[in-house]
Design brief:
This protein is an alpha/beta fold and about 350 residues long. The protein is built from 16 helices and 8 strands. An 8-stranded mixed β-sheet has the order 3-2-1-4-5-6-7-8, with helices on both faces. GO terms for molecular function: glycerol-3-phosphate dehydrogenase (NADP+) activity; NAD binding. It catalyses: sn-glycerol 3-phosphate + NADP(+) = dihydroxyacetone phosphate + NADPH + H(+).
């Protein structure tokens, strides 16, 4: 920013008034706020603030906010990623952020989303809501966009999502990443892409919102299967077959629930599955590996100290598929292991016999 822009920015920050920098980049989105305090929220905040030079940021702890403002980084996640805190309007009051900002990017673990949204009392009908949550709303068995639509009366043109293979650690390190923005409103999707694109972020649009949301849930489930198999000492030859069958199963479900033209090999589907199934950064694969090595479900969760969304996604997807009735042997095997106490080694052996 030039000197004049920085002075204007600081004065507006002091007054807590959102504004549009850079000659109106992202003008259709207005002011932007991040809702969430984890690693992916931190990575997205880094990407967005590089464009806007001003964001709101809801963190649920006043202590974390004080530590963040003092040290210039998230005290708990991606601590090597530094921010200019003069460009951030922090608040532990979600209603203050929801009221003051035009576009809200929700980046919270899906198991906590419903409780968080129950705290919102302000009207969201004039807002743009973007979710970067790869999970369903537990207890509701709804995708995030469906939940916002049904419980807040928002049109699908106001709702968007950020998907694609994107470990927060690599985004923070500015490693080349390809994202997909899903939205029923193509113009709005393109506006969102503008505040994401950079030398290390490529972004494109898609209208397959529902398909991307369900694919993001299923890839976590399949990553746990991949981890279990790794823990059981299955080799790379089998892992390739496993992922191949996972993509076939995912396509069957997506075609059944939302039969539109899509290319399952696209990065937002297959790419996200590959990185989640193979990467050492994958929480779901790590969770599965521990189970394969003999950890109980509870002990694996405690030792990880992080949320493996696929654990919750398995139950939600199993219940949804009771109605959809797609052929999903991998999902069924995961449900038996995680919720019915089935022996992982025996269940995976039964699963391998069903592969082709």
């Amino acid at each position: 920013m030039n000197i004049f822009s920085r002075l204007v920015h600081k004065s507006r920050k002091w007054l807590r008034l959102p504004f549009l920098p850079n000659g109106g980049l992202g003008r259709g989105l207005g002011s932007v706020a991040i809702i969430g305090s984890g690693s992916w929220a931190t990575a997205i905040a880094k990407v967005v603030v590089e464009h806007t030079h001003y964001i709101g940021w809801y963190l649920r702890s006043e202590e974390k906010i004080k530590a963040f403002e003092q040290h210039g980084h998230n005290p708990s996640y991606l601590t090597s990623t530094h921010f200019d805190v003069d460009e951030i309007d922090f608040s532990a009051d979600i209603n203050k952020i929801a009221k003051a900002f035009d576009t809200l990017i929700f980046v919270t673990p899906s198991p906590y989303l419903k409780d968080l949204l129950d705290q919102i009392t302000v009207d969201l009908k004039g807002k743009t809501i973007i979710t970067a949550i790869k999970g369903l709303v537990p207890g509701e068995n709804l995708t995030c966009s469906e939940y916002f639509h049904q419980h807040f009366g928002l049109s699908y043109e106001q709702l968007a999502l950020i998907g694609g293979p994107s470990h927060s650690e690599e985004v923070a390190m500015e490693r080349l990443t390809y994202l997909t923005v899903g939205c029923a409103n193509e113009q709005k999707a393109e506006e969102i892409c503008k505040i994401l694109r950079s030398d290390y972020i490529k972004a494109k649009t898609s209208s397959d919102v529902l398909g991307i949301e369900y694919a993001a849930v299923l890839k976590n489930v399949y990553a746990i299967v991949a981890g279990i198999c790794a823990g059981l000492k299955y080799g790379d030859n089998f892992q390739a077959v496993l992922i191949s069958n996972a993509m076939q199963e995912m396509e069957r479900f997506l075609t059944t629930i939302n039969p539109l033209s899509r290319t399952i090999s696209d990065s937002v589907y297959m790419g996200d599955q590959l990185v989640t199934g193979y990467s050492s950064f994958s929480r779901n694969r790590t969770f599965g590996t521990m189970i394969g090595k003999g950890y109980s479900i509870k002990s694996a969760q405690v030792e990880m100290q992080m949320i493996a969304e696929g654990y919750y996604g398995t139950k939600c997807m199993y219940e949804i598929n009771k109605e959809v009735q797609a052929e999903m042997p991998m999902l069924n095997a995961m449900y038996n292991i995680l919720y019915n106490g089935a022996d992982a080694k025996q269940e995976i052996k039964l699963l391998t016999d069903s592969f082709r």
